[in-house]
Amino acid sequence: MALTFTDLVEVDLDKLGTAVSEWKKTVDRLKTSAENAHKGMQAKSDSAQWAGVNATVTREFIAKTAKEVSDLHAEANSIYRVLADGHPELVSLQKQVKDAAGKDASALGVRVNDIGDGKVVCIFPTSAATRTSARRNSSTPSGSWRTGSTGSSPTPRRSTPRSPGPCA
After folding, report:
1. H helix runs in the chain, sequence order
2. Bridge partners of 116?
3. Is the per-residue pLDDT at 158 higher than 90?
């Protein structure tokens, strides 16, 4: 199933924020576990007066276990950092897309329609009255608009408007 533009715009990023918080708690608990494994379990193993084959095997096992707990903490911390860095960025991008597709396009008389697969079609004003009304609400010079503008205002073009056209 492909994501649609609407899916991306309406996804609840608060759930990702909750996941970031939960990963932080997990990282903190794993840090404590790793410290306990090194300072407790491994320190006791290293200072024990064990002898024989079992002593060597047990020390190696404890050292490997303590290292695995430390490695698990490092991996969880990496995941947390990616989520913690990505969440505010995604929230900001989602807001920008909502503003561009909702407020900015609407102020220019442009309709943004979801056509699936993450694509949209922008329907531009076709009547002179609509273009005039949209121009009064913006600083765009007279003329029609071309699709594919990446800024907050349309790209002026001196030809007959095309409707609908893909936004890219």
Report:
1. 5-10, 14-36, 43-47, 53-98, 105-107, 128-136
2. 119
3. no
Strand partners, 120: 114
114 neighbors 4 (Cβ within 8 angstroms): yes
Q: Worst-scoring range by mean pLDDT, 3-12, 109-118, 119-128, 136-145?
A: 136-145
Cβ atoms of 142 and 116 closer than 8 Å:
no
Q: Give the pair of three-digit tokens for residue 37.
A: 């494994």
Tell me the C-alpha distance between 34 and 85, whole Å.
Answer: 24
Residues paired with residue 119 on neighbouring β-strands, in sequence order: 116
Query: 40: helix, coil or strand?
Result: helix
Q: Say how far apart CA 108 and CA 27 lie, in whole Å.
A: 48
Q: In 3D, which of 15, 62, 56 has the Cα closest to residue 36?
A: 62
For β-strands 111-116 and 119-123, DSSP reports them as antiparallel
With vertex at residue 10, the alpha carbon angle to CA 137 and CA 3, rounded to the nearest 5 degrees, is 115
Instruction: Please give the structure tokens belonging to residue 132.
Output: 């005039």
Max CA separation in the chain (angstroms): 94
Note the pLDDT tens digit of each residue in 28-45. Answer: 999 999 999 999 999 999
Side-chain-side CA neighbours of residue 25 (13 Å): 6
